[in-house]
Amino acid sequence: MTDAVTEADTDVAVAPPSPGELERRLEAILMVTDEPQGVIHLATAVGRPVAEVQAAIATLVADYDGLDGDGEPTGIRRGFELREVGGGWRIYVRPEHDALVTDFVLTQNPTRLSQAALETLAVIAYKQPITRGAIASIRAVNVDSVVRTLLSRGLVTELFADAETGAINYGTTELLLTQLGVNSLDELPHISPLLEGGNEGFDGDIR
Questions:
Q1: Which residues form the signal peptide (predicted)?
Q2: Tell me, what DSSP letter sits at residue 153?
């Protein structure tokens, strides 16, 4: 009897999910994650082979795009997409809705970054590695408290201390890339056209 129960339990444990069930499980996980999830991690979470999870992800991507397996339109294209970023998968708002969602978040989220924090974050993103002194020189204001805020939010990190002066150099984190929905800093937009003929503090390559 014991052997029979054990065998039955094993069969239940390894039985494949019903059609569409794996996609629903993955969708439920991806809806609540704040960071991109790797395929192996997802496969472990749902207890299925990596190949099955990869196929299910492809199905979800097509479904959100309103396409079938052959790339033919089947339904409504969702306002969000399943995107691979930083070696993992996460649900993002589609680019065409960025302005709408940004406006909503900025007016509804009381913990949003201040204008000073956003400006400081931009300087660090484009000029890293960079010290507080260099940031302050570019912005012409004291940035100590703003840098502390960005550190506490996990958007920037201490990279290393200058060998001669001991000044700490800062850079952005993977969290910032995740929040922006890009894979690397190379995907940041070029800012040269926005400088109106002046590039004070952004000497060198300013994209």
A1: none
A2: T
- As given in the structure block, the two tokens for residue 91 are 């649900």
Q: How far apart are CA 178 and CA 184, in angstroms?
A: 9
Tokens 């109106």 appear where? Answer: 196
The residue type found at 182 is V
Query: CA 21, CA 97: separation in Å to the nearest integer?
Result: 29
Q: How far apart are the first and last CA of the chain?
A: 71
Beta bridge partners of 131: 169
Based on the number of CB atoms within 10 Å of its own CB, is 28 exposed (0-12), middle (13-18) or buried (19 or more)? exposed
At 92, which helix (H) or strand (E)? strand 88-93
Reading phi first (left if > 0) and then psi (alpha if -120 to 50, else beta), residue 197 is in left
Nearest to 179 by CA among 155, 152, 149: 155
For residue 48, give the 3-state DSSP assignment. coil
Q: Tell me the chain's radius of gyration from C-alpha atoms.
A: 23
Phi, psi values for residue 131, rounded to 5°: -90, 165
Q: According to DSSP H, which parts of 33-173 are helical?
A: 39-46, 50-64, 98-108, 115-127, 132-139, 144-152
